[in-house]
Known about the structure:
It is a single-pass type II membrane protein. The chain is of the alpha+beta class. It has a domain at 168-345: B-lactam Antibiotic, Isopenicillin N Synthase, Chain (Jelly Rolls), CATH 2.60.120.330. The chain has helices at 5-47, 110-126, 133-140, 142-148, 175-183, 185-196, 234-239, 241-249, 348-357, 362-368; strands at residues 81-82, 85-86, 88-91, 94-97, 168-169, 212-214, 221-228, 231-232, 262-267, 272-276, 283-291, 296-300, 303-305, 312-315, 321-325, 334-342. β3 (88-91) and β4 (94-97) form a beta hairpin. It is globular and about 90 Å long. The protein starts with a helix and ends with a helix. The relative contact order is 0.15.
Amino acid sequence: MEWSLENVREMLAGGMQSIRECEVCALAIGLCLLLLFMWYCYRVGREHSSSPLRGRYLSGPSRIGGVVGGFMSSDCRSRGKGKHGSMLEEQNGFAFCQSSECFRCTSSGESLNQRLYHSLQDYAKRYTWSGMGRVHKGVRDQGRYLNSRPTIQRPEVFFLPDLPSAPFFSREIQRHDVELLEQSFPALLSEFESIYHQPPARSGSALPPGWKVNSTPYGQWWTYYLVNQGTPLVLNVRRCPRAWRVLGQLRTFIANNVFGNACFSVLTPGALITEHYGPTNVRLRCHLGLKVPPSCELVVGGEPQCWSEGSCLLFDDSFLHRAFHEGSADDGPRVVFMVDLWHPNVAAAERQALDYIFTPGRLEDREEK
């Protein structure tokens, strides 16, 4: 075939004619794909917001949680006053959770197992069973898994089987979020200073607004939650806009279920957080050191580690763990910014299912039906 200007023109003309003939067909296919995509977004959007955090703190007072004390339920949500009455009782400045609706305070008995399984069935009917092998296995045999775990690792609420576990994890497994938090160190430290040095919330109290005291045998442990068991605390969020923006930029922050928390945590000199377990192994707890005096230590699964200012420490809090500050009063408090991130080996489909099952309030609503 000889190449000439005339041959090129004929080829171009033939190509344009073919495109015109296929235009209607291509348009129809494009419209079908667009409709399918819109339907998928609608179905997913009914249960999951398009952005886990953006705008949630403006959703009204019914979404405001509280923080209650006790080392086994320091991230429990306050239910306030409802049909069950006041769920918090203050004793000597400490708040103790007495809510039968709090998932951390719900025993891992047959009732909880049934509610988990029914929620998983609801999810599968609405979406799919695809990729639910481990979740189904964990929900079905939850009681056996929790009771048969070795004492070094025993999550209180939910155990996902076949998940690699270790007391501490390398920062490389969540590199993006770790680097983002460490780059935000100056802003987070500045925001901590602004909320920590506020005047007391009320007369006779040493606590600035938004801070809560958790029960400890020695010293004091203060927490300032932005997100508590998957629920943003509106007033606290408004006082910390930069920290809230950082949370919104994290890729693996657990923002849509009760296993997700974010807070500033303070240990005063002489304080001890006694040994306890977290609720699940599907998350990694990340501590960004903001102020770290000498003689402060975190022990997870029998392995001790020290915090470092401006650096993140990743650990699995379903392992038995404790923390202490053995410094003097002149050393000042130990301060970390704490966030809960997804375990890297929990697949995207499993995360979506767990977000559905453990949506704040879902298990309680099912129990009432």
